[in-house]
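SAMPLE LOG
Freezer: B-3
Tube label: C17
Construct: single chain, 75 aa
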Amino acid sequence: MFQKEHLVKLANMKMPFGKYSGRVLIDLPEEYLLWFANKNQFPSGELGDLMQLCLALKIDGLDSVVRPLKYGNYP
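STRUCTURE (predicted):
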């Protein structure tokens, strides 16, 4: 189960490596996240958990709910 802080992290944490290094997690392309899923190679730990949550939100069309949380624009 995810909590509000997970959504805030998705909106503000940057990808630390790879092709999209420096891009905020919620802005990662769905195809990139699907690549990790298809290879069953999400990073371990919090980053991998957040990437999986990000993919689930994108698949369900809910990623737009996270975008307003960027850069502290939340209560």
